[in-house]
Structures are given as C-alpha cells and as structure tokens.
Write a structure and sequence with these properties.
By secondary structure, the chain is an alpha/beta fold. It folds into 2 domains: 143 residues, Aspartate Aminotransferase, domain 1, CATH 3.90.1150; 215 residues, Type I PLP-dependent aspartate aminotransferase-like (Major domain) (Aspartate Aminotransferase, domain 2). Helix content is 41%, strand content 16%. The strands form 3 sheets. The chain has a 7-stranded mixed sheet with strand order 4-10-9-8-7-5-6, with helices on both faces. It has a 4-stranded mixed sheet with strand order 1-2-3-13. The chain has a 3-stranded antiparallel sheet with strand order 11-12-14. α4 runs parallel beside α11 and α7 packs parallel to α8. It binds pyridoxal-5'-phosphate.
Length: 382
C-alpha cells in the first residue's frame, strides 16, 4: 500500500471506521449511487456516512451530475473568472443575506483558514479561540510539525458553556481576533451560549465566525445561521454545498470582506467550472425537491430509532447523540463500538461509530428501518 496511512482522508481509515485489525470489512469502494455503496469486492452497502456529510442529495444525483458534465464539456477551467462564480455568489446571498460578499475555495480547512486570516487582517490582532473541528491546517491544531508560536495563538472554548466561554473571551480581551465555532457539537446550541458568543466578541472587538461546513445545506439551507437567526461576522460553508464536488465558501458583510483585498487569499482551481456548476445545481435541486424537509423527516425517524435502541441496550453504555439530520450512537466502550461498526458492515450497513451519520434525499423510511433493524440485531449480539 503506497498511500501513507492507507488513505488521504483520516476519517476513512479502516481502523477508525471499524477498529484496528477488523477482518472482512470493506476497505475500498468502486462506486456509489443514492445511499448505496459498492466495494472493491463487489459487495453492496446501505450507507449513512454520506461522504462524511458532503452529500445531502444522495451520491451521483443526476441533476448535479448533468450540470457537472456540462461544465466539463465547457472546458473545466480557463484563464478568466467563470460566469458561474458571480451567479453562485448572488444565489448564496439570497439564501444567507449576511453573505454580502464571498470567496470560493476548495476545502473546508482552506476556507476556515481564510476566515481567520480575514479576521486577523480586520482586527490587526492574532489570538483565536475555537470550538469544534475546523480542518487540518496549522492555525487550529497542535502536535509535531506545527510551530509553537502558531500553537500559542490558538485556544479553545467549551461548547454550550456560557460562563466558560465568557471567561475565555474576556481573558483574551484586546488580543482576540476572532472566535470560531461549530454551531452543533453532539447537540443543538443553547440560546444563552449563542448570545454570549455574540455579545462578548462584540464587547472585546473580535469577530464571530460560524463554521457551517457540516450544517449549511443540511439542517437548513442557510444552516445554523438561518435556523437560530445568528448574526456572525463571517460564515464558512463547505461539504454539502456542491453535493460532493469540492467547494467551500467564506463570506460576510462587505465591510469585513474588504479585508480580503489587503491580504492574499487565492487558489488556481478555486474558479474551475465544475464545482461551481455543481453547487448551483445543488441549490436548485434542494429547493426544487424540498430536500431538507425530507432530511428532517427521515432524520427524525433515525434519531427516534437510535434513542430507542440506546434505551433498550442491556449494558446502558450506548447513547443517541447529535441532532436528527446528523446523529450517531455514542458508546462508553470504544472496543464495543468497533465490534458493532464492523459487524454492521459485514451485514451490509455502513454506520459510523463516531460523529456523525448523515441522512440524504436518497434515504427513505424503509432504508432507515432496515438500518435500525441491523443495528438492533448487532447490538444484541456484540
Ligand atoms: C466543521 C468542520 N470544519 C472544517 C472541516 C474541514 O473541512 P475539509 O475536510 O473539507 O478541509 C470539517 C471537516 O470535516 C468540518 O466538519
């Protein structure tokens, strides 16, 4: 195996999905459609991982693929900005009015790094507080290869803890460039926490950045910002925005976004045709099919079923976690979580043992019920 660490996407590593040394589990896939995945050995799986949340309309959605194929036929990439760039920006502004201006990039990590760069440029400060996962780049991580000076500029705040958050923001005070949060971490955000984030950042002159990479185009078209009427300074979108084609967005008010002009945020393939066209088709398809109402309904069916399975589990060490459109069974016993995930896979179900499983337009009541039946049988036997 010449790919270092088996695969380039950490969360797709077999040991993370199924536990170290699991046998007879799928390692590589050859194709996917709807919510069905085919592995390299010709076996078929009902999937709830959905490209780690990058797919809300189902794999290979035909309207999105049609737009992408047409973009390939138009040449994929060229020397000038593509028309689709401005048009998608306008469409996003209609969905999330706070996105007066945007920049497009390819990955969530890149768009988050851009948001932090913009916040630092706007405030002329360096310190950042974060909450959740924001990608692999240096500014928000620690460990080998990351300079100590970079690590020292980043701290964390506790999710849904108004007092801890207030204290951390006040302690950073006039050194704080921005607070960056994932709005959903295993649970919906409390109104009081959201209020503290907004008022305390304003008080110290820092920007508030909402990382909507998992939540936009899933829990609502405009994500948590729409659902909980948030008023962030910057918003970052990714994953489901182009139904699996690589695209991410950073945006906010014209006032904040003008700072992009004074720093350098640019990438050769940020403006290829295919992902921009795929995103426009994704927006149209989500609106046209009322997909997010469907996700809420099938998500609720899954969430209710998982809650019941957790309550019925004889060990009492399994819990239903998350919110209906993105949820999972959280296990106190890590080894058991691996046994369950591996056995589900052997029975044709790909169901993540950590945050999150995602429903899609391709899931229906019978796929949810089938997954719950398999999970119930496996939990009883593992
Ligand atoms: C909330 C959040 N932010 C940022 C990222 C990083 O995005 P990417 O993996 O596209 O770089 C992720 C990826 O899982 C994410 O869930």
């Amino acid at each position: 195996m010449s790919v270092s660490g088996v695969t380039s996407t950490g969360s797709k590593r077999p040991d993370l999905l199924f536990g170290p040394g699991a046998t007879d589990v799928p390692h590589q896939m050859v194709r996917a459609h709807g919510c069905i995945v085919h592995d390299a050995d010709g076996r078929e799986y009902l999937d709830f991982i959905m490209g780690l949340g990058a797919v809300a309309l189902g794999y290979g959605n035909s309207a999105v693929n049609l737009a992408a194929h047409a973009a390939v036929d138009r040449g994929t990439v060229g020397p000038l900005p593509p028309e689709d760039e401005g048009e998608l920006a306008e469409e996003l502004r209609v969905i999330i009015p706070r996105l007066e201006q945007v920049r497009f990039l390819k990955t969530g990590a890149e768009a988050m790094a851009a948001a932090v760069r913009i916040a630092r440029a706007a405030t002329k400060r360096d310190q950042v507080l974060g909450c959740g996962y924001h990608g692999w780049l240096d500014w928000c991580n620690s460990g080998p290869g990351i300079p100590q000076s970079t690590q020292s500029l980043f701290g964390t705040i506790p999710f849904n803890d108004p007092e801890g958050t207030r204290q951390a923001i006040r302690a950073a005070g006039d050194r704080l460039a921005c607070v960056v949060v994932e709005p959903v971490i295993d649970a919906a955000p409390a109104a009081e926490w959201l209020a503290v984030l907004r008022t305390e950042t304003q008080q110290v002159g820092a920007l508030l950045v909402i990382d909507e990479i998992k939540t936009a185009f899933r829990i609502a078209l405009g994500g948590a910002t729409e659902l909980w009427r948030l008023e962030p300074d910057l918003i970052v979108l990714g994953k489901a925005i182009a139904n699996g084609y690589p695209l991410a967005v950073v945006g906010g008010s014209a006032d904040v976004m003008q700072h992009v002009q004074h720093t350098w945020i640019s990438s050769t393939l940020a403006t290829e045709f295919v992902s921009l066209a795929a995103a426009r088709a994704t927006v149209a398809e989500i609106k046209g099919t009322n997909a997010l109402t469907h996700l809420a309904a099938v998500g609720a069916r899954l969430f209710t079923g998982l809650t019941r399975l957790a309550e019925q589990d004889a060990t009492g060490s399994v819990h239903c976690s998350g919110i209906p459109p993105m949820c999972y069974l959280r296990y106190d016993d890590e080894a058991r979580s691996a046994r369950v995930a591996a056995e589900c896979a052997r029975r044709g179900l790909l169901f993540k043992r950590t945050a999150y499983n995602f429903v899609s337009l391709a899931h229906d009541a019978s796929s949810i019920d089938s997954a719950l039946k398999t999970l119930g049988e496996v939990l009883a036997s593992c």
